Amino acid sequence: MYGWIWRRLPGNVYVRALISLVLVVGVVFLLFQYVFPWAEPLLPFNDVTVDGAAGSAGAAGSVAETAGGAV
What we know:
The chain has helices at residues 2-8, 13-39, 56-66. By secondary structure, the protein is an all-alpha fold.
């Protein structure tokens, strides 16, 4: 696929490289400006299951005990 695109671009190697760079920057821009914000609510990254009732001291103590140290 990339070879097909490369062969279809006009110009010599330097012009093709510049056009390729512009195309890549354009695709990245479109992804960050339109596609990722559209898809973000559909992804489960905000569905956390951590509960604040256990407290952070209990979690830190259990980590230290498993590492062999005493709290």
